[in-house]
Amino acid sequence: MKFWTLLARVSSARICFLRSSSHKAVRSMASETNGMIEEAVESPMESTSNGGWFDFSGWCKWRPTSVNHLVQAESKMLQFVKTKLERTYIKLASGNELWTIIANRDVPGKTPLVMVHGFGGGIGLWASNLDELSSRRPLYAFDLLGFGRSSRPNFKKVPEEAEEMFVESIEEFRQATNLDKIVLLGHSFGGYLASSYALKYPDRVKNLILVDPWGFPARDPNAENARQIPIWVRALVHILSPFNPLSAVRAAGPWGLNLIKRFRADFKNRFPEVTENDENTVFEYIYHCNAGSPSGESAFKRMTEHIGYSYKPMLLRIGGLRRDVPVTFIYGARTWMDINCGHETQTLLPQNHVEVYSVKGAGHHVYADRPELFHEIVNTVLDNVD
Questions:
Q1: Confidence check: pLDDT of 208 > 70
Q2: Which residues pair with residue 16 across a beta bridge?
Q3: Best CA proximity match to 53, nearest among 41, 39, 43
Q4: Radius of gyration of the chain (CA)
Q5: Cβ-contact 182, 114 below 8 angstroms
Q6: What DSSP letter does each residue of 41-54 carry, written as one string?
Q7: Whole-Å CA distances, 258 to 14, 64, 276
């Protein structure tokens, strides 16, 4: 009965989620962290033309979230980063904006590292990695279009066109930041998009680092049948298929945060410095990243099929990567992603330098599960890049 009660709440909640009048853009809160001032910058997320998502002037108070909630949660995630961070919106040619942090921009003669987070995440989840990975070269990390504090536009409904919007936003970001060539690192869904970008813009990618990438294998119906998935599970998947992946978080309203804490309790141990004083910090950050309008989330859903598979598997495309682009796969040994995809890529790209690593004791979020080993691998790759 709990499931049907939740569906009823989804229906009733949607009635409340109607916009009313236009709303002036909210400016993010200036905050002081470790003696460094984060300047107040205008957020693009409230503009209805950009798919605004935090306009509470005409909404019922079902979801306790706002721009300032996300700003505060992100600041708490990043407060232990020792490296001075520039925090700014990068305006794209499309009119959208990507919320960005930059570290050591002026390190000379080094190709910048650009980091792309995974589905439902944001730059705050790189908190354990920013100091180490920016120590010897410039580092850029941004909230993907449609996620975090970046603009939330209405994505194209055709999967290929939605993917193109993501890829072009990365290219527009590169142009707007005047970066010539980059080392592109992507985690999970970010790894899929980084691969797609490298296929289209190989001239710009000096090295491609894929961290537990999503979307590589093709779906094998026979394998699913062999797993003998219970009928009730298949029925539940069928019922939930029309909804966005994180719709339950929004439908739960004031209980959304507790829902994340319950089902993603594993995140508490991934950021010990962050959660030492307040164990809710990482859960609050994830919640506020995803409690707004499902812009990028909706695009992701259009790009998937049968839950967990890409509409256009990367293994069927990666063989077209230009031979002078090195690729490094970093998997967690306990991940649900298939490390065989990395080994298959080695076969598909015989002329490329392709390395595949498995990090013992790490799951899907290998960068947070075993940060020291993750840094060691990434720095080994970076040491071979100017």
A1: yes
A2: none
A3: 43
A4: 20
A5: yes
A6: -B-STT-GGGT---
A7: 20, 12, 19
What angle, rounded to 10 degrees, do the helices at 256-263 and 281-290 form? Answer: 120
Q: What is the dihedral of CA 180, 373, 123, 308, to 10 degrees?
A: 100
Distances, alpha carbon 36 to alpha carbons 90, 124, 180, in Å: 20, 17, 29
pLDDT > 50? residue 35: no
Residue 71's contacts (CB-CB under 8 Å, 6 or more residues apart) are 28, 29, 31, 149
pLDDT of residue 222: 66
Q: Whole-prediction pTM value?
A: 0.83
**What are the Cα distances from residue 347, in Å, to 150, 214, 224, 318, 343?**
37, 19, 25, 11, 7
188 pLDDT higher than 60: yes
Q: What angle do CA 110, 200, 338 make, to 5 degrees?
A: 85
**Is the pLDDT confidence value at 332 over 80?**
yes
pLDDT in tens, 43-80: 554 433 344 444 433 344 567 888 999 999 999 999 99
Q: Return the bridge partners of 230, or none.
A: none
Judging by DSSP bridges, how do beta strands 304-305 and 113-116 pair with one another? unpaired
Beta strands in the chain (DSSP E): 31-33, 36-38, 85-91, 97-103, 113-116, 139-142, 182-187, 205-211, 304-305, 309-310, 327-332, 354-359
The pLDDT, as a whole number, for residue 142 is 98
Q: Which strand (E) or helix (H) includes residue 380? A: helix 371-382
Per-residue model confidence (pLDDT) at position 20: 31
Joined together, the tokens standing for residue 130 give 């920013």
Give the contacts of 117 (CB within 8 A, at least 6 positions apart): 123, 125, 126, 141, 143, 144, 147, 148, 187, 190
Q: Which residues pair with 91 in a beta bridge?
A: 97
Amino acid at 243: F
Q: How confident is the model at residue 240, as a pLDDT? A: 52
Phi–psi pair at 349, nearest 5 degrees = -120, 65
Provide mean pLDDT across the span 323-336. Answer: 96
